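[09:14] KT: can someone run the structure on this one? pasting the chain below
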Amino acid sequence: MGCPDWPKCFGRWVPPTEASQLPANYKEVYTAQRVAKNQKLARTLQRLGFAQVAGSIFAHPTQYIETDFNPVKTWIEYVNRLLGALIGIFVFLTVVFALPYWRHDRVVFWLAFASFILTGVQGYLGSLVVSTNLLPVMVTVHMALALVIVALLLYAMDRAEWGRATGGVANERATVTEMPAAVQAPKAAVLLWLWGALLLTFGQIVLGTQVREQVDIVSAAAGYAGRATWVSQLGAVFSIHRTMSAVLLLVNVYVGYEVWQLAQARLRKLVMAMVAIIGLEIVAGIVLASFALPAAVQPVHLTLATVLFGIQFLTLLAVGRARKSPETIAPTDAVRRVVA
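[09:31] RB: done, structure tokens below
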């Protein structure tokens, strides 16, 4: 809430650095603007049948509270928006460079195009996060959509790189006939466990956004004092989040072990990266819970979780491809395909 309006910040393209640059009644002005925008949003949601979500907008206790001007928070938020705009440019360029794939692998193009459309939706959701004063459901949807965009872009990149490296279907016969020995294909169960680990991480990140919302409520109620007591005042969501971290560790250790047994260099690198990120993530979580939620560790915790999600998704793609790739077919099956 460093910038109470969107896309400008306090009505400027270059944000202010001092409160004296703002009108005396800036809180009332921007609160009125937000409420008017939210009323329009609530009416739209009601027409679409989302009456409960529409009602929650004005039931949220901070709806009519305007944050005091803080130049540090203002510029953090503004830099966030600039980075968002830069991401939009890069995703658009990704679509442009994906155009040649229309002729031989349209999936790459459509993945890039879908990422571009969703990035625009993400920008609009960002404006709603601001106007609703960090309404929990908006923050959660905003974070979840970011992960979906990350997955789409990773899939587009991975598919394009694999196509260039193998030459696609054209080189499949050569790959099969040159195989010196049998290579065991990954079992379907490994793929299912990977999906489970990925969805578990996704859910854990969503839970994390809800924990952060609880932290905001507790800290505001305490007047941002007594930071050491905030963790003890968090509700059941925090307990679930903490318990799920242990489940996540066990699932990923098992998945990592199974993938490691496939004895493929790239998969083993992904497993090592996954284990390392999980270790760092657990350390960050312990620091947050044990040392009064240090502000500097909070973004680190979320960033590590997002990186873990990306690594798991790349591992999923690699294992899925290994199940279909000629390199995982036993020689007897390979001979049948060549003869056919």
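[09:33] KT: thanks! Confidence is low (pLDDT under 50) at residues 169-182, 328-340.
[09:34] RB: yep, looked fine to me
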